[in-house]
Specification:
alpha/beta, five-stranded mixed β-sheet, two-stranded antiparallel sheet
Length: 512
């Protein structure tokens, strides 16, 4: 059931029957998935259930997209792990408290971006950088889940080290867990390819529970899940705030890339307006609430949003239905205690396998080598800097900016011709503080190599943009040329730069 032809405006206030169906459909796959993502983040599985209950409820109050499903996601969970591992041991009380503080920082950052109408910041992350980071993050996530997928309870510390140790010690693998992981992955991936509404995660979870009940050696299990409801707690470890500020800001911005992508896709399909600033507010509130209820940072899920959309969601309240369904499940959550951890590990691996974007990075290298360097450099930096992968994000952003500035600097060229005593020069590209020295040098060389020229005309029609430094450099250049006894004028100043040129002064032009 899709119901695309009968969609109603996202601003409708009351949920519809289809919202209820869509919200319940998402909740069925979110319940086991949320536990898997919590453990990926280094937290007890029950914390994932808390997040799965409160985040969709809070986000629904302010969401712009009626289809976006908010909650725990793999990338944000990995970023959480990377931010907290240097500060505390996973699963401990200190670690859990700092996860809540990190969520609050993410929430405040996103809320501020949204309230100041700065949602455009989500577009500043270059695609090559994101491809490199996402691919390496997916590799790290898969590596972190390998020990659990093969039934090893205590792997060596360090994500990559633990994965290498696991692969090198095949004799220690728990074969029933390996088989269960393989079955889970096939069901989850196969069901997703068959149709988004096929509840692969739910089916795999049910199979895991049956296997655990029938097997005498099911491998490591989830264990007891207390049937308590999330409680508000404001006594967060504020002393860790300075250390967690940078990772929190990185999670807030990078994690929103998926939110933006999801919302844009469905807004385009339904020809609906989507407001990124408003979505930042919704995501900010969701993180704030999860932070003060013992959770961890959250984001938008493409897979669950797809289920929500295909199941016929019509308003943003479908997310609230999902949260209410998970909330109602909490008192009986101990039902999942005999679930083998291999199932949770395979769910996470299946969710992120598609994020390894090697073909996209290869294409970046083929199309433009500098962008390929950004993609592969970010990929390598993410793996090398793990678990501090937020630093790899900064590396990728700086590399993208450096490539952009280098291309802008190299894009300026000067075309010239001599007609008797007239020297005509036409700079093409962008005249900004980085390329201004090149223009000055090039014009001086052309003047020096044209001894018969008495008059110089500088045609600016080929410039796409002129910044203040470029205009000042151009004015000084004209003065220097005039001191040599030559007449020099400018013509065809771009419309956007006319006011700037006039305010700077020193120009003699036949059109300004």
């Amino acid at each position: 059931m899709t119901g695309h032809a009968s969609r109603v405006p996202a601003t409708r206030r009351l949920p519809t029957g289809r919202d209820v169906l869509a919200g319940l459909s998402v909740a069925l796959i979110l319940i086991p998935a949320s536990m898997a993502y919590a453990e990926l983040a280094g937290l007890p599985g029950q914390r994932g259930l808390y997040v799965a209950a409160v985040a969709p409820l809070a986000a629904a109050l302010f969401a712009s997209s009626p289809y976006l499903q908010t909650g725990p996601v793999a990338l944000t969970a990995l970023l959480t792990l990377g931010a907290l591992v240097p500060l505390a041991d996973p699963m401990t009380a200190d670690y859990i408290a700092q996860a809540g503080l990190l969520a609050v920082i993410v929430g405040v950052t996103r809320l501020a971006i949204g309230l100041f109408r700065s949602g455009w910041i989500s577009y500043l992350l270059s695609q090559p950088m994101l491809n490199g980071f996402m691919s390496a993050a997916a590799v790290l996530i898969i590596a972190s889940q390998l020990p659990g997928a093969v039934g090893i309870a205590g792997a060596e510390p360090g994500v990559l080290r633990g994965a290498v140790s696991t692969l090198a010690n095949i004799q220690s693998w728990h074969l029933p867990s390996v088989g269960l992981s393989a079955v889970t992955a096939m069901i989850v991936i196969g069901g997703r390819r068959l149709h988004p509404l096929v509840p692969g995660i739910l089916i795999a979870t049910a199979i895991g529970l049956v296997f655990s009940a029938l097997s005498s050696d099911p491998g490591p299990l989830v264990g007891d899940i207390h049937g308590s409801l999330p409680a508000f707690a404001f006594d967060l470890p504020w002393a860790a705030f300075p250390t967690l500020l940078l990772p929190g800001v990185v999670i807030a911005v990078v994690g929103f890339a998926d939110v933006a992508s999801i919302s844009q896709v469905y807004a385009a399909k339904e020809r609906q307006h989507w407001d990124p600033s408003r979505e930042f507010v919704g995501q900010g509130v969701a993180n704030l609430v999860t932070g003060i209820t013992g959770g961890f940072p959250v984001g938008g899920s493409f897979a669950r949003s797809s289920v929500n959309y295909v199941a016929g969601a019509q308003t943003r309240w479908s997310g609230a239905i999902t949260g209410l369904a998970v909330l109602a499940f909490l008192p009986v959550a101990n039902f999942l205690s005999p679930l083998p951890r291999a199932v949770l590990a395979a769910i996470v691996i299946s969710a992120v396998a598609g994020l390894v974007r090697i073909p996209a990075m290869a294409e970046s290298w083929r199309i433009a080598r500098p962008q390929g360097v950004v993609a592969w450099g970010t990929f390598a930096a993410t793996l090398i800097l793990a678990p501090h992968i937020e630093q790899a994000v900064l590396f990728g952003v700086l590399a993208s900016v450096a490539v952009h500035l280098w291309r802008e600097m190299m894009s300026l060229r000067v075309v010239g011709s001599v007609d008797g005593e007239l020297l005509l020069l036409r700079p093409e590209g962008v005249l900004w503080f980085g390329s201004a020295p090149f223009l000055v040098q090039e014009v001086n060389e052309r003047v020096a190599t044209s001894p018969d020229a008495k008059r110089v005309v500088l045609d600016l029609s080929g410039l796409g943009r002129i910044d203040t430094t470029g205009a000042l450099a151009l004015r000084d250049l004209l003065e220097d040329v005039r001191k040599t006894g030559l007449e020099i004028v400018v013509r065809d100043v771009p419309d956007h730069a006319v006011g700037l040129v006039q305010s700077v002064g020193g120009f003699e032009s036949n059109d300004t």
